[in-house]
Amino acid sequence: MLFAILCVALGGVTFTRAAEDPEPVVANIGPQPASINAAPAAPLPLPKSSSGYALEYVKQTSLLDQLARMKTNDYDGFIQALSITSPDAILNSLLAQQLDNEIKLAALRASPSKETPQIRKGAAITREIKQKIKQRADGILAGMSIQANAFKAAAAEDLGRYQMQSVELVKIVEEWSHRRVLAKADYLEYSNLLSHLQGLPRKELTAALTTAFSHQTDSKMADVSERLQAAKAKVVQAESQYGPNSPIVKAAQKELENARSAYETKIDDVLAGIRSRVNEDQAYLAIIDKELGDAKDRLNMELEKEKSARGL
The pTM is what? Predict the structure, then answer.
């Protein structure tokens, strides 16, 4: 007899209902269960990252699937598992009241007096508690399902943000790639030109520069070149008319020296400008390569985040 009571107390198992029809529930058999209309325990705070949302969604749906199978195949085990995996004060209170009531009923059934009215009342209370346990368990499952959907929606929202960020980063990568193509073309044009000009004799530079910059106009270059040619012709004419020692020839020669100096200075300025252009292009390409590399790295990071967020 005592062994039966201990088995019921330790196992928390339900007993077979009494054969008699239940009488109205009375208040003096076991404590009254708490209200099942109270809200389930507050859900855990949502994680901040999309991968966290996705992970919580997977965990929650997996748990719901397992609980659903247990509910169908082993309801008592389902209730116990639910009370452990999703702690709820009201559910635990109801389970404690059920256990307490069943212990008292087991004691009544084992007593010599066999107080049948008290047994019927206790059985009625047990049925009521079980019904409230079922309602509370269904409410907890519904809350868990809502929370799982919230995790999924949050992950999808973050995924949308990742996709938008990825699109913007793709545009940035494309823009820097376009700039690099232009800068590289400019660098190659001027570096190749500089290499070619540095290998030419000075007397050929004017023609080479005119050919190389046929798409540009340098009026000063044309002026100094024409001035040099005119000064040369003037010296030749003066020498033929007045002889090499004439003051007029000496003046023409001085003018030629000035024209040649202006021409050489202009050539040096043009070459220095080309060198500067090459150096600027090199520096700009270095900046572009850095910005392009950074943009690609950020894009790859966003794509990895998007990939993780898709793992729902």
Answer: 0.44
